[in-house]
Amino acid sequence: MGSNGHNLRLVVNRDKQDSPIRGVYLVTDHGDRLAERVEAAIDGGVRIVQYRNKGKDRAQRYAVGEELRDLCSRRGVIFIVNDDLDLALQLKADGIHLGQEDGDPRIARRELGPGRIIGVSTHTMEEALAAQAAGADYIGFGAMFPTNSKEIGHLAGPEGLAAIRSRIMIPIVAIGGISRDNGPRVVDAGADALAVISAVLAHPDPFLAATELGLLFNRRAPHPRGAVLTIAGSDSGGGAGIQADLKTATLLGSYGSSVITALTAQNTRGVSGIHGVPPSFVAEQLDAVLSDIPVDTVKTGMLFSAEIIATVADKLAEYRKRIVVVDPVMVAKGGAPLIDRGAVNVLKDRLMPRTYLLTPNIPEAERLTGLTIVDEEGMQEAARRLFRLGARNVLVKGGHLVAGDAVDILFDGSAFHRFTAPRILSKNTHGTGCTYAAAIATYLAQGEPLREAVGRAKEFVTAAIRLGQPLGRGHGPVNHLLAALEVGDQGPGTGDR
Ligand SMILES: Cc1ncc(COP(=O)(O)OP(=O)(O)O)c(N)n1
Ligand SMILES: Cc1nc(C(=O)O)sc1CCOP(=O)(O)O
Ligand SMILES: [Mg+2]
């Protein structure tokens, strides 16, 4: 009987194109609240759970395994048992994962039957080829990087995975020290799945950690690669707002959708009128998009009112969208206020706790923190305070500081990262902030980890400013098209430049 209680023949197609062995592959640890943490990871996109319990107490191993098997059955998630064939049979698992010392996969196949999944740990080309020849449905291959979760004798690294890729026709599950930041190298080396323990189960937010890792597989998606939703105002002049966001997402190679929060009558000289969209219709637009389009990342811009901010926060929670870049737009280039006074507190209370990256400029950071910011030290303090208000990561943009390069400071809760670019003196900077935040959201949707996404977005927006051309009689727009052609598919940018 299958793990979901039916006489289920889990027909596993060994052809890696059709195999269910792909994406984020969670391996359990021995910590407390295991089922709760595993379920949070499943909510974040994990579809394969391997129960790995090296304990000696068989009854305890069975009891914990039973709870996890029932959880996986309820959620339609593949449940694999590590090492122990008897336990796998007792728990009616969907499969087993065997180490080199854990028995012959052929025997496991005979005992489990054709419809079950058999994985084998491998560390060399020889072991990988032998496992494939023995009929394994996938191989584990490691270790990718140093890890504290297991004593490892061999660091194969992503290079080792790339070396076996061409000869292994079944899925390769990479394992060992994998994280959001080093995961791209493993995906780019050809891994079909990333097996992780601590990157998800030791993370304070396993849902978010699983989501971040899952996004890395968009690196392989066909164009348009990744889907970005912008929730912002319309700029009739076309230089900022959803117009800038959609140009950015599209020109950088992703799919853009939009929810409009306000209509502005605007041109290069300023804003002459604003009509807020009824919050109920903002909610209706959000339902229409989020119930149908597979949105990977969200970018918010002008949110106009406290009611709209609350509506957006509630819908992001309802649809469990966590990779949200919030550009706290407050004042238009010409000085017109784009948010009402009461809205700032609602933004801090309701939206910040759901913010993956907050991207204030200096005036916005000062308004949100009450600080006066005159240098990088002030930017760092503002970032710390905004992190404490709930933003998971904070990018304070230094463009408004008058001296030196244009320096932006990223704070991820533990470290600061500087992103610098030459300061470009131009009046054609309309839409800079929108474009920068939209580019970050786009690169995140394409599977770039945060620092790379910020670095590449900084390069893009700097080029867009530099290539800006006069248009209208006021502040001309940045040049999205020429900037996209210039940055193209160059290698990713990184922090500390
Ligand atoms: C996918 C995957 N790959 C490797 C392992 C390692 O298994 P483990 O039982 O921890 O060690 P070995 O028995 O393979 O030496 C795994 N659990 N999952
Ligand atoms: C279980 C395991 N097997 C490895 C191998 O190389 O075979 S490395 C490893 C530990 C993986 O844990 P983490 O994701 O916390 O690094
Ligand atoms: Mg083992």
From TrEMBL:
Q: How is the cofactor bound?
A: Binds 1 Mg(2+) ion per subunit.
- Cofactor(s) for this UniProt protein: Mg(2+)
Positions of 2-[(2R,5Z)-2-carboxy-4-methylthiazol-5(2H)-ylidene]ethyl phosphate binding: T147, N148, S149, G177, I197, S198
On the tree of life, the source organism's domain of life is Bacteria
Q: Where is the Pyridoxamine kinase/Phosphomethylpyrimidine kinase domain?
A: 235-479
This enzyme catalyses: 2-[(2R,5Z)-2-carboxy-4-methylthiazol-5(2H)-ylidene]ethyl phosphate + 4-amino-2-methyl-5-(diphosphooxymethyl)pyrimidine + 2 H(+) = thiamine phosphate + CO2 + diphosphate; 4-methyl-5-(2-phosphooxyethyl)-thiazole + 4-amino-2-methyl-5-(diphosphooxymethyl)pyrimidine + H(+) = thiamine phosphate + diphosphate; 2-(2-carboxy-4-methylthiazol-5-yl)ethyl phosphate + 4-amino-2-methyl-5-(diphosphooxymethyl)pyrimidine + 2 H(+) = thiamine phosphate + CO2 + diphosphate
GO MF entries? ATP binding; hydroxymethylpyrimidine kinase activity; magnesium ion binding; phosphomethylpyrimidine kinase activity; thiamine-phosphate diphosphorylase activity
Gene3D superfamilies assigned: 3.40.1190.20, Aldolase class I (3.20.20.70)
Residues reported in the UniProt entry to bind 4-amino-2-methyl-5-(diphosphooxymethyl)pyrimidine:
Q50, Y51, R52, N53, K54, N82, S121, K150
Q: So, what pathway does this thing act in?
A: Cofactor biosynthesis; thiamine diphosphate biosynthesis; thiamine phosphate from 4-amino-2-methyl-5-diphosphomethylpyrimidine and 4-methyl-5-(2-phosphoethyl)-thiazole: step 1/1
Q: Which residues form the Thiamine phosphate synthase/TenI domain?
A: 24-200
Task: List the GO cellular component terms.
Answer: cytosol
Cite the binding residues for Mg(2+).
D83, D102
- CDD domains cross-referenced by the UniProt entry: HMPP_kinase (cd01169), TMP_TenI (cd00564)
Q: What is its EC number?
A: 2.5.1.3
- What are the record keywords, sorted? ATP-binding, Kinase, Magnesium, Metal-binding, Multifunctional enzyme, Nucleotide-binding, Thiamine biosynthesis, Transferase
Respond yes or no to whether keyword Transcription regulation is given for this record: no
List the InterPro entries.
Aldolase_TIM, HMP/HMP-P_kinase_dom, PM/HMP-P_kinase-1, Ribokinase-like, ThiamineP_synth_sf, ThiamineP_synth_TenI, TMP_synthase
Q: Please give the biological process terms from Gene Ontology that the record holds.
A: thiamine biosynthetic process; thiamine diphosphate biosynthetic process
Family to which this protein belongs: Belongs to the thiamine-phosphate synthase family.
User: What is this protein for, i.e. what is its function?
Assistant: Condenses 4-methyl-5-(beta-hydroxyethyl)thiazole monophosphate (THZ-P) and 2-methyl-4-amino-5-hydroxymethyl pyrimidine pyrophosphate (HMP-PP) to form thiamine monophosphate (TMP).
Q: What protein am I looking at?
A: Thiamine-phosphate synthase
- Tell me which species this is from: Geobacter metallireducens (strain ATCC 53774 / DSM 7210 / GS-15)
Q: What is the lineage of its organism?
A: Bacteria, Pseudomonadati, Thermodesulfobacteriota, Desulfuromonadia, Geobacterales
